[in-house]
Design a protein that fits this description.
Elements: E1 3-8, H1 12-21, E2 27-33, H2 37-47, E3 51-53, H3 56-60, E4 67-70, H4 77-86, E5 90-94, H5 101-114, E6 118-121, H6 128-138, E7 144-152, H7 172-188, E8 192-199, E9 211-218, E10 223-229, E11 237-244, E12 248-252, E13 255-258, E14 263-264, H8 275-289, H9 297-315
Parallel strand pairs: 1-2, 1-4, 2-3, 4-5, 5-6, 7-10
Antiparallel strand pairs: 7-11, 8-9, 9-10, 11-12, 12-13, 13-14
Length: 316
């Protein structure tokens, strides 16, 4: 059986999903949705997708459509996930699930009610580098004592990963911190019980904090320090240092190194070295097997509770 998919949001991340899906058998993208029809048509032509629209509801009416991948602006994630579930479609939404907790709780409620697969793109759970560490944790070969994480971008204007103008404002807490808050609990194999945050000055135009520092502690005692910035002028990206009781590891996206900068071969961890492709493979496998996926809405909800609590603290 071929799973028929619609992709909403044909920007930088949507294209990463289309490239990943090309490597997954028996999956076909039959519709692409974007607010700029000319640009969306270009993407559809390149990937041989027949249906193009600027209206998600129009795509949801396609009878043979099984699932939707949402790579749209953060502010639309929860409402569009709800629309997909109400239309009887499986949904994978890019991180973050929501930018307010009550909306995320409603997505979780609907996922339970409909029985559809509802998954969030917490890619760090799927990157081979982080999978390698997670497998060691589960095997009892290491216990994480501390994670030290830097998430740094240079984004003083509204631009996306391709440097193109954005119609929406990104957010350090609800988007970029979500990756690490979820990953810390996942890798520590223990729920977060303490969380603290401070933020720098609010940008006069964008209306968001451009710098933030977060401290976390898990129930088992492990700690995490996360530094985030939109003011950092290179190098860009997120860098993870795992300090464990049996070793130190540094993860840079799909690559992994020891604390002494010796590269570790993670090519055999999974069927691909591409975290986005592995994320999509899990989504489609969960649909086929009728099971809850890794990074289901239900599994990542504790992360959004922590983000909510941190936001209350920052606004207090």
């Amino acid at each position: 059986m071929t799973i028929k998919v619609a992709l909403a949001g044909a920007g930088a991340f949507g294209i990463k999903h289309l490239d990943g899906i090309k490597n997954i058998p028996d999956v076909e993208v039959i519709s692409v949705i974007g607010r700029d029809l000319a640009k969306t048509q270009e993407v559809a032509d390149k990937y041989g997708i027949q249906h193009v629209t600027d209206d998600l509801d129009e795509a949801l009416k396609i009878q043979e459509l099984d699932a939707v991948i949402l790579c749209t602006p953060t502010q639309m994630h929860a409402s569009q996930s709800i629309a997909c579930l109400k239309a009887g479609k499986h949904v994978q939404v890019e991180i973050p699930l929501c930018d307010e907790l009550k909306a995320g709780l409603e997505v979780a409620r609907l996922a339970n009610e409909t029985g559809k697969v509802a998954m969030v793109g917490h890619t760090r759970r799927f990157n081979p580098s982080h999978q390698y560490v997670h497998n060691m944790v589960l095997a009892g070969e290491i216990n994480i004592q501390q994670m030290d994480v830097q998430t740094y971008f240079f984004r003083r204007t509204n631009t996306n990963a391709l440097g193109q103008a954005r119609s929406w404002t990104d957010h350090l807490l609800w988007h970029h911190a979500a990756h690490t808050v979820d990953l810390f609990a996942y890798q520590a194999n223990s729920p977060i019980v303490k969380a603290n945050a401070v933020q720098g000055p609010i940008h006069p135009v964008l209306g968001i904090a451009m710098d933030m520092s977060i401290q976390l502690q898990a129930a088992n005692g492990a700690i995490c320090t996360l530094s985030l910035s939109f003011n950092n002028d290179g190098p860009l990206g997120t860098y993870f240092r795992y300090i464990g009781d049996t070793g130190t590891y540094i993860a840079r996206y799909d690559d992994l190194f020891t604390g002494k900068e010796e590269q570790i071969d993670v090519s055999q961890v999974a069927v691909s070295m591409n975290g986005i492709e592995l994320q999509d493979r899990e989504f489609f496998a969960a649909i086929r097997e009728g099971r809850e996926p890794n990074s289901s809405v239900q599994k990542v909800l504790p992360c959004y509770q922590v983000l909510h609590d941190l936001e209350q603290q920052l606004n207090g």
